[in-house]
## 1
Amino acid sequence: MGSDPQFAKYPNLALAQDIFTLTNPSSSSTSRQTSLKKLQDAISDHKMAPLYRHLAHPTEGLLNSSGEGSASRPATTARRTNGASQGPSGGIRSALIDFPWSEQLYEKIKLENDTELETFAKEEADAAETAGDTEVQAAKGKRAEFWARVGDKEKALSSYEAVFEKTGVLGTKIDIVLAIVRIGLFFNDKMLVKKQVDRAKALVESGGDWDRRNRLKAYQGLHLLTTRSYNLAAPLLLDSLSTFTSYELCSYSSLVVYSVLAGSVSLKRVDFKSKVVDTPEVKAILGDGEDKLATLTGAASAGRGAGDEDMNDASSSTPTPAPIAVNLTTLGTSTDKVAEMETPVDFTPLAGLVRSLYVGSYQAFFLALAAVEESFLSQDRYLYEHRVWFVREMRLRGYQQLLQSYRIVSLKSMATDFGVSVDFLDRDLAKFIAADRIPCTIDRVNGIIETNRPDDKNKQYTDVVKQGDALITKLQKYGQAVRLRGSERG
């Protein structure tokens, strides 16, 4: 199994979600107040002076529009927009709730940071004099974790790299790289994340143990999700469901949401059924009562939240709170850390989306899609920037699934099936037809949609003709460029 992972505690990615919530126009005022309280408590408890300045400083802070003893600063002030420069909020929006700056608090926690750094310096010096390289590396590792804890991106990266260079243990090297990946995720630095994920893959392939190989799958899947590579992210995230232990990356509830959404938009219908609809880990959370009882044992169903969540409204004499996701991997061995990470989530919209898409209940599918956008896509920092694309692709998937069963279908009947107006369906389909995403034509005069499904041979013939024409054109241009006349040969 390998040794326990190191450097897995910081940074706390849940704080990055709280920062995003403060800037998210779709979040409720209650959730903003809750996130603000959590963020302020974390800054105070963990002495996060660099992050506090990065977010709340009256002239340099990403979120603050007013400061203590200073003039208000317009939220529209120009700031760097490069992905490597964005803060945890994932953009340059100012906070929708006041994030006050206190010079007194900043100086207090900064002084505590300086005291802690002096302790690390003394510990390193003592280790260098009286102990060996292992103790020196351990002291340097504490310093790197300190910078990750307090939210200083650049110093954390340089400290981790310094530890990496002096480390000979492969497992520790992988843990350091994964810690750097989380720093990139915290500060929404996609280029850093991509580079470090590739670095971690190379290290794992050179002899990493099963546990770190398994953890890397979740890291890869989440990275691909943030870059809108849902087709590549889906297999990795779905595979991670049965062996997930990377709670430093995200909660199991979040992993379920990411896996189901990625699979719903990218997998073919056969794979969608086998890997999403019928997967035990998904059934244990999104299934109805019978599905859950078939998936979980009696002891499991007696656990906290294991038998409360249903895809449909449960018939109960008393209302039940939103369920907590059941990770079958850690069931019965859950630690306090796991329990703390998991929060109640209402999976009803997600369950409705999966069920209605699979059974072809398209009006319910559109309603569930709207609910998923409101409850998940618009509230999650990794999903938010892709929400419009996701909704469009899911509408396309619904249209394609219905049209593949018919040669000709009435425009009015299809609009009725989806619960939309004929005009809306006409406009929406026209965009996909123009982009060659749906092989059909709309006859608005007769009010019908006629599908054009060329067989594979015709498609291959058309592709060969197109590619052949392009090749001939290139060869002709090349010939003109290199043709030598008789007089030039001499």
## 2
Amino acid sequence: MRHLILPEGSTSSIGPFWTKNNQYCKWVFSHYESSPYEASWFANIETAQSHICETVAKPEHKNASEIIVTRTLELMSLPSSSKWETYDTFNTTSFHSSDSFMSRMHYNRTCYDTKSETFKLAKGKGIQLIEPLWGMLRDPFDHWCGDKALKMEGQANATGQSKAHIMPQGFAPYTYTDSSTPPTLEESRQQEWRTHGLPPWHSSLRPSSDSRVGVAFQPPQNIHLDLGSSYFKVWGNDRGAASGQWFYDIYHARGQPFSRFIAVEVETLNDTTAFRQIPDDLVGVYTLMNVGLTMEEGDKLNTVDMIKRVVKPEDFFVFKLDIDSAPIEEPIVKSLLEDNPDEGGASALIDELMFEHHVNYSPMNGPWGNPKGVGDLHRSYNVFRDLRRKGIRAHSWP
């Protein structure tokens, strides 16, 4: 039997993963909570989208954007030597005032009942922050608004690929209570936040019955699918347009190595160049699929079917979707929004999604080629919120 690595100083009988009766526990998504600041944007985005650059530049929004981006950059600025190879690596700290702008993903603790072979709701609740949906759903200090673009002291001019607004899971503050938390301390414990590391809902063990040992628990994998990958380090002369290195640095190099790293690119790549760019420890892990995936039913290259073949619900799965083709991207997202996660839907497999949603609004309709029939920025807001409401940490990719 294989168990998750527990935090230093904990035991297998208590804490987020085990009960006193040695029941294994995992954490499941409960609900999404928009921050008040995000809610204010939803209340006004239908009209604000027609003059989005001017709206973002208003003093109250410029100030909020500075707070959100400064906080996110602060969280992302850890030295490369800081890693999280186990759960709860970092010590707790008090709630940061800037985090009141962030939205929240909520989680419940469930424990495995060997008699019924099901997980049942147990004591324990968790919260993890995520950047709010606001403005253009991009770094507001990037250059897209031209002369009206916001400026922030100390931040270099962005070139269209800024990810300064994105808060990936390992860099997002979280808090939780569990079975070892006395009722008198539950409220105070919810004010103790870890700024970085693996929360208990990162991944889980998969129980299975074994006639020799009873219930065996299989360990999870860390998997990344990059749909629209280009080369690993650089595309043309633009390093910002090649995403592989970013995902490697944010996840793999932080102590949670990928078991599989699947790069999909429809544009013809040179195999030698592609594999020369990957780090040594991705050799054998990295798979390049230099073909286009589809959403055609029965096609062996169907995107959602491939995800279901490769990923298990207990795995940690990061999915990037950016192929600059709304006719292909839209059916994938539509499938995720409409499926039933409790009945084998692929949405239940995705922990983190980076998605550039190509819709029609100024100033993005220029670089995106005026896409037709895909909706506007208001629709994009709803798409990202609905994805988050299904338990997916969905971020707007640049």
## 3
Amino acid sequence: MSGIAHHLVKRGIDATQEKYRSGSFAQDVDNKPFGHPHAVAAALIITSLLWFFALSAVQYVYGGVVATLTMIETPTATAFKVDPAESEEADAPLLAADEKKETTTEPELFYVKTKPITSKIRTTIRHLVAEAGPWSRFRGLQVALAYHFVHHLLLQVLTALLGGAMISQSAAAVVTAVVLCRLQMLWTHVVISTPSEKKWYRRFPTIDAGKKVILPTALWALAEQATIYVPITLFVVFDLEGYFRNPNTFNDLSPMQQKSVMLASFAVMMSGIVTAVLIVFPASVTLKRVQASLLPEENDSIVPFDRSFGGKVQPQIVGGTGVVSMLDAWKTFDWAARFRLVKLYAKVFAIQVSTTVFFVLFAVFQVRMINGDYILY
């Protein structure tokens, strides 16, 4: 077989060289629609930018605004009064008036919880548009852009001062989040409140309010760093670095060893997901609810929101702290709300995957339209 393959390859090379010397090869290439590399590059760049903006919009609107409203909404209950019959006895009309009075009972009240606004993405967006206009789905965008811009600059400065080591970068990320905790809380307040006549930069939380979110902000930032360090630690413990640097060493292993390496790689991947679900998820919800508890009294929430958190928060006017504790913030977020939030995140992930697949297919279609049957290598 190797002799036949060698013969065929040699014949192919000789034929190609002969065709190239005769000039017919260049003529064939010129005749093919493969002469538009600049057009392909421009189309791919534009498509990549559109993909980036589409993915960012999905993440901001659904993974940011809608998710934050889901974290703080308190479903309301409607009371129904039911007047009972005077008597359940069959011969009630024959009873005396005094006997009827004795059998009369008080009206009963029934409370029925209304369906949460954030139970579906569609109902949430409709509510926002009805309450704050068509652009309300992007509410807080100016604050978010300011936050990310300042966050990037401050993170770069702190990383340079602390050194380029990974532990230094994580420390810089935590410090940056704590320093900007008031700006992050401002974004939460703008998102969860009804439209205000004040400009966003005039709605900054007080320094006293900022002090109350330092601890939950630091814990949230540490939780996010854990999603990086836990997989890295397992990656080093399982000694997987050599297999990724030189994949050929994997082929030299026995089938049992290969299964062990694959299981270890799967464990590393799952560790990041488990850390995000068990640590980042509660930390993020707790932080948002603590921030929401500090919403100024003059601002109304755009979705139903119990400022007292079931009576656990007392206003400062009556001698209370005016802020929910981290433990109460998480405990008052019931399982129904947690399920709604997890379902929302699953929907956001599905939308992002679908968006990415669409743009990949669209990019391939563009290349085929410009270059015919040829694909750039």
## 4
Amino acid sequence: MDHLINSSDSTHPANHICSLCRNFYTLGWVTGTGGGVSIKDGPHIFIAPSGVQKELMQPTDIFVMEHATRSYLRKPPVLKPSACTPLFLAAFDRGAGCSIHTHSQWAVLVTLLVEQEALRKGTPLADICFEIEKIEQIKGIPKGRGREGMLGYFDRLRVPIIPNTAHEEDLTQSLDAAMERYPDSYAVLVLRHGVYVWGDNVHKAKTQAESLDYIFRLAVEMHGLGLPWVDQDVLE
């Protein structure tokens, strides 16, 4: 089944996943074999393997799954399928064309700050959400599924946060629930873990992942300066 991953086209999913992972490694998003990328191309889903150094990946390392049947058409013999696969599928089932999982430090820190505020206020951790407004980079995030255009400067960006679990695949149920509760969100943060971001295609998913990471970093810096993320909330 190597014909599924052999191509000289740099935008072919097998090649594109490798180049994205190399780029994300330089950003600190996929260090220590963490994180992953998956791209849907027609009936096929291309998935980075688990437990490999993402900056060294080659197209021959890529798994290929048939979306409709959830069966693997190509499995590298010495590698393990990504533990993120069920979570990627949740995005693809909702029409996404690319899903990205990072272990960005800024994403993790934002979840810690929201958790800290929730504990201070007595808010159940099952209900926490990162919120920010009046930041220009919010314009890099779409308004939501089935809605035209991007969020604006005065719109409030909301990214749900779900509890972490001992095993990645055990996140699937809570991630799926967060997607239903926040149908306009293109990302879900995982407490003390990282973030899942998806988009209609590779370009949009990458743009959204970069915009969100910028916003998460800015939010952490704002908190350190005592600046509020939204008008009615001042984090202490």
